[in-house]
């Protein structure tokens, strides 16, 4: 599944997460993953305290059919009629988006800036419009940033920061040499 732990991925620890949130205290980060079910994990600061909440939801057959239509449309090579493909995606999203409610993972308070970090499979979904009418992510937040698949880069940055200076310099030099 898309949200199971992978051995090669290093976990983002609380200290690194706190550092990011200290730099952006109004932000709420939510990682969204679609696999066998829907998983959302959110973190934010309340005062000086790091808070978090998650929700996991089973996806109905109707939601899976809509997801399949969405993924199929994204995978097409353009050989189909643009009108029928557009209609298929719109129909799939009309069914799917109200079913993808992330509100149980989010803080109860108003959200100034929500940062959505979708997994690979979840990245095709326009999460800003997900949720029941009146409770979509756009309804809940003043601003939304959508950063598909950036979590590995955030984890890499945290890992680099933990390296001793000599190793960090070697790593950075090796990365520049590959470009």
Give the termini distance in whole angstroms: 32 Å
Structural class of the secondary elements?
Answer: alpha/beta
Into which percentage range does the β-strand content fall?
15-25%
Helix content percent band:
25-40%
**Main β-sheet, spatial strand arrangement:** 3-2-1-4-5
Q: Average pLDDT value?
A: 79
Number of helices: 6
Shape: globular
Low-confidence segments: 1-9
Q: Which value, in Å, is the CA radius of gyration? A: 19 Å
Oligomer: single chain
SS elements, strand count? 5
What is the succession of H and E elements?
Answer: HEEEHHEHEHH
Q: Strand count, sense and closure of the main sheet?
A: 5 strands, mixed
What does this structure look like?
The protein has about 180 residues and is an alpha/beta fold. It has a five-stranded mixed β-sheet with strand order 3-2-1-4-5. A hairpin with a 2-residue loop joins strand 2 and strand 3. Helix 2 runs antiparallel to helix 3. The longest helix is centred in the middle third of the chain and has 15 residues. It is globular. The chain starts with 13 loop residues before the first helix and ends with a helix.
How do the helices and strands line up, and which of them pair or pack?
Layout (H helix, E strand, L loop, with lengths): L13 H10 L3 E8 L2 E10 L2 E10 L2 H15 L6 H15 L14 E8 L18 H4 E6 L4 H12 L2 H14 L1
Parallel strand pairs: 1-4, 4-5
Antiparallel strand pairs: 1-2, 2-3
Helix pairs in contact: 2-3
What's this model, at a glance?
This protein is an alpha/beta fold. The chain has helices at 14-23, 61-75, 82-96, 137-140, 151-162, 165-178, and strands at residues 27-34, 37-46, 49-58, 111-118, 141-146.
């Amino acid at each position: 599944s898309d949200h199971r732990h992978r051995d090669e991925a290093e976990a983002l620890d609380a200290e690194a997460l706190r550092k990011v949130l200290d730099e952006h205290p109004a932000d709420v980060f939510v990682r969204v993953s679609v696999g066998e079910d829907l998983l959302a994990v959110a973190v934010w600061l309340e005062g000086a305290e790091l808070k978090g909440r998650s929700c996991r939801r089973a996806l109905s057959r109707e939601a899976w059919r809509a997801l399949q239509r969405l993924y199929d449309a994204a995978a097409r090579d353009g050989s189909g009629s643009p009108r029928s493909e557009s209609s298929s995606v719109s129909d799939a999203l009309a069914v799917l988006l109200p079913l993808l409610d992330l509100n149980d993972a989010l803080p109860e308070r108003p959200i100034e800036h929500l940062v959505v970090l979708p997994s690979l499979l979840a990245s095709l979904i326009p999460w800003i419009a997900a949720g029941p009418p009146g409770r979509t992510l756009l309804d809940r937040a003043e601003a939304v940033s959508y950063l598909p698949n950036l979590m590995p880069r955030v984890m890499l940055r945290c890992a680099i920061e933990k390296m001793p200076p000599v190793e960090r310099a070697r790593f950075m030099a090796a990365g520049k040499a590959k470009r």
